[in-house]
User: Fold this.
Amino acid sequence: MRLFNICMLTAAMGVCGAASVPAAQNGAGGTARIIETICSFDTPQFTIETNGYSRISIGGCATSQSRGKPQMPFRTVRLLLPPSSVVAGLSCRAVKNTIVLQGERRISFGRQPQVLGHPAHTAVDQRDVPDPAVYQSTSNYPAAQVELVSVQRMAGYDIALLRVFPVQYSPASGRLVFTPSVLVAVEVSRGSSTAAAANTSLPPSGRAADRQRVAAAVDNPDLLTEYGAIQDTGRAGASSLYDYLLVTRSTLLTSFDSLVSFHGSRGLAVKTDTMESITNSYAGRDSAEKLRNYIRYAYTNWGVRYVLLGGNVAVVPYRGVYAHCDTITTGSMPSDLYFACLDGSWDAGGGGNGVWGEPNDGDGGGDVDLTAEVFVGRAPVGTTAEVNRFVAKTLLSQTNAVGRIQACLAGEYLDYVSGAFAQGGDALDTLLPALQNSHSQAIWLDDRPGIDFAWGFAEALAALNRSPLLVAHYGHSDETTVMRLGASDLDSLTNAAPFLFYSTGCDAGAFDSYYPPASIGEQLVIRNSHGAFATLANSREGWFDGQHEWLYSGEYQKCFFDGLLTGGRSSLGEAHQLAKQDMIGSVETSGDMPYRWCYFGITLLGDPCAAVRVPVSLCFRLPPDSSSCVVEWNSKTNATYSLFRTVDLLASNTVCVASNIVAVPPLNTYTDAVGTVDRAFYRIREER
Assistant:
């Protein structure tokens, strides 16, 4: 047996470096400042599509998606603004010489988003053509290399979101100009936002956890020091009284006792309250606004981080919001994001017209708050029996000894789009790196390469009854069917351990019905003792691209699993919300808005604090010719541990930390219990 000296290492790759410098006095007599950041970019890569167009991509960049317009790579830059300041202007200049890329190319264009709903096999309206006003132009596209997306407020700190385009395209000539490194400058001036003046925004939080979240979210965390003098003012002080808030109906409250006790045993301070008490004690136009105002109070005064809405919409209200894409417009898409993002009223545009979440519904005419203060999930329960099932499955998912992660990937034939057969399996392929990097095994249900069903409800049941931990579905659905299963088929589930279910299909998570039956996504969680312990699904339509199936809904799904499996986002609420915030630079404010639609519609039907334990990497350096070293890590006092290396349970090297004393295995590991011994396994990387 060889013992290793193990140290936890954190590695980060910087792509933007930021600084602020003073500028001249502005015309109003206040002091203007320039916040600068330098962005460096990898060399562009090109893929020739079947129609002869070239798709351009750059590592670390998203791609713009506007119908008929060139698809251009951009990076989302997040700059923390100084206290009491507003954006006054933007500029951008090359740090390194621009490069004219060789060749004349026709860059691919954005297409009509497609609906992931029934029926499939429909013909597509042939509106997918290049916009002649753009493609016949000799002007650069985009015209500016930097644009302001919005100013968001997280935990009381204002963050400017920018899109930075390293490549500009002259469509008529096919000429592409690449800037390897650019300096982006944001001019800010003294002033308060309309939201702050109206007292509808939260004060800057002085809590360490909030400041750490802000620091991790921006490209210029050093600017946080400017908030030092005000961090303890207002109500957002440095202490937290509660970590976790449960809101339900009084008749259901005691049924959650086991879940409350479990979170308490894990060190969380839990606060419970009832909708009856909240609606009688807090102001608001309706019960949803009263609940949001209560959550704001709980976050600001108590430091709450997780919120479980303990009921279906007949128990705990929801907020219907505005959404538009293609020919579909709604003002009532159910969205629990309203209870997570706590700045502003979400109905400031149009004089408070009762249509919530419009792109101009932020205070001052900007966008609504899209960065969360709390992580929200919903238990879609309405009876004591449903609460008991929800709690039992949640606890089972958290206390089971978890071995190597098993995943089920279910991909459906989607449609015939623009001369190609779109396949859900092509979108699910993008999840494979995260699964491989977390040493997860995947079983497939896959219609590829054909257009007929290669699997049906029987195969789906068999796959789910093998008790995978993760299920990812990419295909068509509606309120009553998902993964080719109807509600009655769920009675045939026998999986021993509950799974986490994520579907990109339409309406599977339509949780806004006041009357039975509940949506299929809800029923996976509450119908019986099998099935899912949590579901992530769309409350309305899901969206894909006929040429690149993973776009739109699939990108959110990928960000979720990347964060959950390899990004250290172990809790479902955190992984769910931060996946959305990974995509925030793509959220539209006009035209077709599929990214915005997904941002509001994807819903977590489960406990936001529930975790998925994933083996984490331990990096260590082995001195030459060394055979044994001292091992140090956080452990229980007076516990005896042994450390050994094994390859018997994984295809690659692992380290096993074993103890016969610790009763609860640490998070972010998987365990294998042998007698009275709990063995916690970690992935390793050895350096010599």
About this structure: The mean pLDDT is 85.
